[in-house]
Amino acid sequence: MLGGVFNTFDIAASGMTAQRLRLDLIASNLANVDTTRTAQGGPYRRLVPVFQERVRPFAEVLRERAAGFGGMSGSAGGVSGAAGWQTGGPAGGAGPALGGPALAGVQVAAVVADPSPPRLVYDPGHPDAGPDGYVAYPNVDPLMEMVNLLAATRAYEANVAVFSAARTLALRALEIGRG
After folding, report:
1. How many domains does the chain have?
2. Which UniProt key words apply to this protein (predicted)?
3. What are the pLDDT digits (tens) for 94-128?
4. First-to-last C-alpha distance (Å) of the chain
5. Does residue 74 form part of some domain?
């Protein structure tokens, strides 16, 4: 029972970590909304995270759970059911992830620069103006960044709520033994 709760902690923590990185990137984008020079040359380019599901191979989970029970005995489905990890598979016994991946949260696969073109503003007096008088500003839209900021904040809060609910369940489970 508690093993599943700890897994929930891990999944929620991965979500909070990913959303915190997203918030950091949004802050960087907003801070550089007028940066026309970078070390790479040209204006700052908006950065966005690429999220991907974090998958733990079932064999790894099975080994970990079997070690927690003093070694694996019986069938894989029996261990899976005893550990409470993945149940309710199509055959009714073994989990759907038997032999396949078991989900374990989210991770940031990469941070990429937005390929959209820079914003051109006519300002012939600007030191970075081209021969035509246009200055290339970053492709950062403050309004879109604020929308993304709200979405990241809500996602972070949702993960905090999951974490708190799992903590409450774990504490209640411990109180059962006290009588």
Report:
1. 1
2. Bacterial flagellum, Cell projection, Cilium, Flagellum
3. 344 445 566 689 999 999 999 999 999 999 999 99
4. 18
5. no
